[in-house]
Design brief:
alpha/beta, Aspartate Aminotransferase, domain 1, Aspartate Aminotransferase, domain 2, 2 domains, 7-stranded mixed sheet, 4-stranded antiparallel sheet, 13 strands, 15% strand, binds pyridoxal-5'-phosphate
Length: 364
């Protein structure tokens, strides 16, 4: 046999440059690094799903257009199924957006620090990325916005075909102010994608701007507020023509029948979801106070996680000490402007207490 890989082409240049995006999955007792919900979905939902599974015809392909699921999602937002696109997690939704509206010769704008997969997926589809910088308060300021949006020729590498915003912003925590999003929507030359993975924690949603703005796309997920990260289901709300374009880059039957069923059933439990969001928000404020009491600087959060600066300490060292104590948080010290920062997901009270105790040890 010839040496392994001898007749194999190298991956294309963009792929070779990709460092990949992976939050480490270390086996620890307390996992607070990927912003999942700390509680399982309602027991009643699991019962309903088990009962309904017998009715799924697994020998048949699923509904290729996932019409019932899309209608149920749309009903949550007061729109019809034609305004809803669903995929296997919101990352896959973002990928479909970049495949349909991005690609080689086009550019995407991001405002760092923000969700790392926006530029990552854009680059994977061959796009150039324009990196805007957030200001001292980690918000998008007007002059930086103007710089990023008006830098060059239409949709070329310097004129973004897609502008990504994240509200609430991961990893910083705050929802984008309404006037910022309105300004971006008013001045962007292409598509504006507002990633609302943590949207139910915020006081407002960019979906309010959808009726007047056919170039706006709002992306959401079942992974966080719905306690269903294991299901891998996300969606976009957008103009029907955008939804149509997203379907054109989607593989046939991409959403399996069990997922379509589970997603529909989950939406019947909206009250439990809202109660869970309220509980997590209250617990978040307890954690914020405790971080302050430890002499650290937590940033304001409208999400189920808190960014905090380990003032006077090396963030990587603190992260390592936490891992040694079997607590995993997200080390974001490599992100622009966040050199001394870590991000912790709000867990159960017991998990948060374990984290705070371990943090006390790490800082001592
Ligand atoms: C801002 C943001 N968007 C999207 C995602 C991806 O979520 P999903 O599980 O739906 O792919 C995450 C997950 O952490 C996120 O933080």
């Amino acid at each position: 046999m010839s040496s392994p890989g001898a007749r194999r082409p190298a991956p294309r240049a963009e792929v070779a440059l990709m460092a990949g995006y992976h939050s480490p999955q270390i086996d620890v007792a307390v996992r607070l690094n990927t912003n999942e919900a700390p509680e399982p979905p309602p027991a009643a939902l699991l019962d309903e799903l088990c009962g309904a599974l017998a009715g799924v015809s697994l020998n048949r392909y699923p509904d290729r257009e996932a019409l019932e699921l899309r209608a149920a999602v749309g009903a949550q937002h007061g729109v019809g199924a034609e305004h809803v696109y669903c995929a296997n997690g919101s990352n896959e939704v973002l990928q479909a957006i970049c495949l349909a509206y991005g690609g080689a010769g086009r550019s995407a704008a991001v405002f760092e620090p923000s969700y790392a997969l926006h530029p990552h997926i854009a680059r994977l589809t061959g796009m150039t990325v324009i990196e805007g910088a957030r200001d001292e308060e980690l918000l998008v300021d007007e002059s930086e916005l103007a710089r990023v949006l008006t830098a060059g020729g239409r949709f070329g590498p310097a004129d973004p075909a897609i502008v990504f915003l994240c509200s609430p912003n991961n990893p910083t925590g705050r929802a984008e102010p309404r006037d910022t999003v309105e300004r971006v929507v008013a001045s962007a030359p292409g598509l504006v994608v507002v990633d609302e993975a943590y949207g139910q924690f915020a006081r407002w949603s960019a979906s309010e701007l959808l009726p007047d703005n056919p170039h706006l796309v709002v992306v959401r997920t079942f992974s966080k507020t719905w306690s269903l990260a294991g299901l891998r289901l996300g969606y976009a709300i957008a103009d029907a023509e955008v939804v149509d374009a997203l379907f054109r880059v989607t593989l046939p039957y991409h959403l399996d029948a069990v997922k379509q069923l589970a997603g529909r059933l989950a939406l019947r439990h909206v009250d439990e979801m809202r109660e869970r969001v309220a509980r997590i928000s209250a617990e978040r404020e307890r954690v914020v106070h405790a971080l302050r009491a430890l002499g650290l600087r937590p940033f304001p959060s409208d999400a189920n996680f808190v960014l905090f600066e380990v003032t006077g300490h090396d963030a990587r060292e603190v992260w390592r000490s936490l891992v040694r104590q079997s607590v995993l948080v997200r080390d974001v010290s490599g992100f622009p402007r966040l050199a001394r920062c870590l991000r912790v997901t709000i867990g159960t009270a017991a998990e948060d207490d374990a984290f705070l105790a371990a943090l006390g040890v790490a800082l001592s």
